[in-house]
Write a structure and sequence with these properties.
about 30% helix; alpha+beta
Length: about 80
């Protein structure tokens, strides 16, 4: 039995051009996503990222995200 979950909003894609990274742009994008999620009465903001994107994982963790799920995919 899992925990009850309220309204969830999802960041589907978050990309900052390599030349523009480390300038705070990603942070601003996350802050705006958090704002929009709150306006829409979300209790949770989630996103997924490829396991290979270690730098992205560090960024999301610095932004306060927690790694709480596995995602499975199947190539067809």
């Amino acid at each position: 039995m899992g925990l009850p979950v309220g309204v969830v909003r999802e960041v589907v894609e978050l990309c900052v051009d390599e030349k523009a990274r480390n300038q705070g742009i990603g942070h601003l994008m996350i802050e705006y996503a958090k704002h929009l999620a709150k306006v829409k009465d979300a209790e949770i903001l989630e996103l997924t990222t490829n396991q290979k994107r270690k730098a992205a994982h560090r960024f999301y963790e610095r932004e306060g995200f927690k790694n709480t799920h596995f995602k499975y995919t199947l190539d067809l």
